[in-house]
C-alpha cells in the first residue's frame, strides 16, 4: 500500500507518496494545477519492477505554498530535497506537462541523474512553432490564452460550487474515455479553502500567476539540444476537445502539434541522447494511457547506464 509522508525544505512542506516497489527508483512529477493523484495509474503499473515515489509540487495538492515566490529554481530545489529525503538521489525523473519540463531541467542541472522522461511537457512554445499559421496571429492567440489562464488562476468560489467542478471533470473524463473516479482524489487534493469558507483550486492566485509567468519564460529546446543525459519525450497526437467556446484555442493547438512533430523529429535525428515517441493520446495521457506510458518508461529505464 502507498504511504504518504512529508519533506520539509526551507519555506515549504512537500507532500510525497511512497508507492513502494523495488528496482530502479523513479520520482513522478505532475503538471501545473494538478496533483500527484494524476500519476497513480502509472505508479501502480511500475511498482512491480521500480521503486516509485511521487510528489505534489509546491503550492499544489497537499504541499504548502511557501513564503517565497513560485520559481523554477525553487521547484528544482524541492525535487532535490525530496530525492535526498527518500534516499534516492539518483532516481529517474518522470514528469507530465510542467512536471516533464522540470524533469528535463533537473537532469540538465544534475549530471548524476541517470535520465528523465517528459510526458507532453512543452508549454505554449514560440509563435514560429505553430505550423501553417501566421506568427502574428499565433502571438495574438497566445496572448488571449494567457489572459484566460491568468483570469482563472486561483479563482475563489462558494463551497457549493465544488459539485459543479466535479461535474465538469466527469464530463471531461467521459469525452476522453477514462473513468471519472480517477479524478476524484485529484479534486480533493486540489481544493483549498479561504478564511471565510470559500474554495479555490490550488495553487492560490498569487502563486498560480507566478507559476504561469515562469512557464512562459521557459524554452525547452535549448535544454534538449545540450542534453548530456538520456531523455525520453512522449508527445500526444490528439487534442482534448474542450467544446465550442474554446474552438479558437483548439485551432492553435492543432497547429502546435504539427509544429512539434516536425521540430521534435529533427531534434531526435540530431541528438543521440533523445528518443521521441508519439502516443495516441491527448494531453491528459497519464489518465488515458497509464499502462502504455508505464511500458514506455520501463523500456527507457531498462536501457539506462545506471551506477552500481
Question: Could you characterize the architecture of this molecule?
Answer:
- The chain is of the alpha/beta class and 308 residues long.
- It has one domain: 3-Layer(aba) Sandwich (Rossmann fold).
- Helices cover 43% and strands 19% of the residues.
- It is built from eleven helices and eleven strands.
- It has helices at residues 40-46, 72-85, 98-109, 135-152, 162-176, 184-190, 205-216, 220-225, 247-270, 285-288, 290-302; strands spanning 3-9, 12-20, 24-29, 50-55, 92-96, 116-119, 156-157, 191-193, 199-201, 231-236, 274-279.
- The strands form two sheets. Strands 1-2-4-3-5-6-10-11 form an eight-stranded mixed β-sheet, sandwiched between helices. The protein has a three-stranded antiparallel β-sheet with strand order 7-9-8.
- Strand 10 (231-236), helix 9 (247-270) and strand 11 (274-279) form a beta-alpha-beta unit.
- Helix 1 (40-46) packs across helix 11 (290-302).
- The chain is globular and about 50 Å long.
- The mean pLDDT is 94.
Amino acid at each position: 500500500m502507498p504511504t504518504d509522508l512529508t519533506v520539509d525544505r526551507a519555506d515549504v512542506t512537500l507532500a510525497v507518496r511512497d508507492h513502494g516497489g523495488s528496482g530502479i527508483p523513479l520520482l513522478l512529477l505532475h503538471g501545473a494545477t494538478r496533483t500527484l493523484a494524476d500519476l497513480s495509474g502509472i505508479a501502480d503499473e511500475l511498482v512491480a519492477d521500480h521503486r516509485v515515489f511521487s510528489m505534489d509540487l509546491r503550492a499544489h495538492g497537499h504541499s504548502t505554498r511557501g513564503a517565497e515566490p513560485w520559481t523554477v529554481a525553487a521547484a528544482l530545489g524541492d525535487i532535490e530535497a525530496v530525492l535526498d529525503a527518500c534516499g534516492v538521489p539518483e532516481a529517474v525523473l518522470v514528469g507530465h506537462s510542467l512536471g516533464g519540463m522540470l524533469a528535463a531541467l533537473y537532469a540538465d542541472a544534475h549530471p548524476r541523474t541517470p535520465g528523465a522522461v517528459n510526458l507532453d511537457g512543452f508549454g505554449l512554445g514560440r509563435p514560429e512553432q505553430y505550423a501553417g499559421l501566421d506568427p502574428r496571429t499565433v502571438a495574438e492567440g497566445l496572448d488571449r490564452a494567457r489572459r484566460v489562464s491568468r483570469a482563472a488562476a486561483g479563482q475563489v468560489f462558494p463551497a457549493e460550487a465544488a459539485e459543479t467542478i466535479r461535474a465538469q471533470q466527469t464530463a471531461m473524463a467521459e469525452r476522453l474515455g477514462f473513468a471519472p473516479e480517477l479524478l476524484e482524489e485529484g479534486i480533493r487534493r486540489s481544493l483549498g479553502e479561504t478564511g471565510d469558507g470559500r474554495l479555490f483550486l490550488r495553487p492560490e492566485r498569487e502563486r498560480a500567476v507566478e507559476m504561469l509567468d515562469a512557464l512562459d519564460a521557459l524554452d525547452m529546446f535549448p535544454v534538449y539540444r545540450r542534453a548530456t543525459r538520456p531523455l525520453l519525450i512522449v508527445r500526444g497526437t490528439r487534442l482534448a476537445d474542450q467544446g465550442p467556446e474554446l474552438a479558437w484555442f483548439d485551432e492553435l493547438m492543432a497547429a502546435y502539434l504539427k509544429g512539434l512533430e516536425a521540430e521534435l523529429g529533427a531534434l531526435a535525428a540530431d541528438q543521440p541522447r533523445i528518443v521521441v515517441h508519439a502516443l495516441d493520446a491527448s494531453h491528459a495521457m497519464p489518465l488515458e494511457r497509464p499502462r502504455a506510458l508505464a511500458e514506455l518508461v520501463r523500456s527507457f529505464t531498462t536501457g539506462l547506464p545506471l551506477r552500481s
